[in-house]
Amino acid sequence: MTPLIPERVGVAGRARHTAEVDGYTHATDTGCFGSLHEAAETLLDDLTSRYLVERRETKEALGLDDALVRTVRLIPRTPTAAPVAIHFTDPGLVLRLGRWWEEPLPACACDDCDEQPARLVERLHAHSAAVVEGGLWERVRRGVGGSWFETKLIGAGVKSSREGLLPAADARDARRGGFASPMQWAPWQVRS
After folding, report:
1. pLDDT score for 132
2. What does each C-alpha distance from 81 to 7, 15, 134, 139, 148 come to in angstroms?
3. Over the stretch 57-87, which tens digit does the pLDDT of each residue have?
4. Residue 4: inside a domain, yes or no?
5. Apex CA 181: angle with CA 103 and CA 63, to 5°?
6. Which of 21, 43, 103, 157 has the lowest CB atom count within 10 Å?
7. One domain for residues 75 and 166
8. Tally of domains within the chain
9. Are 32 and 167 in contact, with CB atoms under 8 Å apart?
C-alpha cells in the first residue's frame, strides 16, 4: 500500500513547492488546468441526472491557511453508497470520495512535475466511475502506535490503495460508524 498521511496541501503549500524547485518558479502555464473545472462541471451534471443523489454547493476552506473554494457534493440517496465531493481550487480540483479518499488534481502544477490536463480528466472520470460502481472500500485499523485508515479504490482502469494516520477521536468516531471491519460502499442507485 502507498502510505499517505492525510494532509491538505493548500494553495500556499503548492506555491511553496513551486518556489522551492531549483530555487525559482516553474509553474508557467497553470491556466491549462482550467479544462479540469469544465470536465468536473460536466461530470457533476451527468452524475446528478443519471443517479439518485442530492447535489449540495457550498464555499469551504480546505485548510487553515486557504481561502474559501467552491465545493460541490453529490450525496447518494442510498446511505450505504459513498458520497463524492469536488473542491474547485486554483489551479485544479480536489476530489474526495467516501470518508478518507482525497486526491488533488493536479498534485503539483509546476513544470517539473508536468501533469497533463487530459490525463487528469481521465483520472477524475475513472475514480468517479469506480465509486459509482461500488468500488471503494474503507476501514479503520488499530495498532500499538495508534489508529489509521485504509482505503482501496478498484474499478475500470483504477486499482489503488492508501492509508494514513487518524487522530484518536476520528478513529473512535469511524469505528462507531461501522468502519472497524472493511466496508465496501454500495453502488449508486440509477434514476428510473
Report:
1. 96
2. 25, 35, 7, 15, 22
3. 999 888 767 788 999 999 999 999 999 999 9
4. no
5. 30
6. 157
7. no
8. 2
9. no
Higher-pLDDT residue of 165 and 21 is 165
Same domain, 105 and 154: no
The C-alpha cell that represents 26 in the structure block: 516553474
Give helix 117-132 / helix 34-50 axis angle, nearest 10°: 20
Q: How confident is the model at residue 189 (pLDDT cuts 50, 70, 90)?
A: very high
The gap from C-alpha 50 to its chain's centroid, in whole angstroms, comes to 21
The pLDDT tens digits for 125-151 are 999 999 999 999 998 888 888 888 899
Whether the pLDDT of residue 90 is over 50: the answer is yes
Indicate if 97 and 125 belong to the same structural domain. yes
Q: Which domain holds residue 86?
A: 9-132
AA identity, residue 82: A
Grid coordinates belonging to 160: 489503488
Query: Are 69 and 61 spatial neighbours (Cβ–Cβ below 8 Å)?
Result: yes
Measure the CA–CA gap between 136 and 155, rounded to whole angstroms: 9
Is position 191 within any domain? no
Q: Are residues 43 and 102 in the same domain?
A: yes
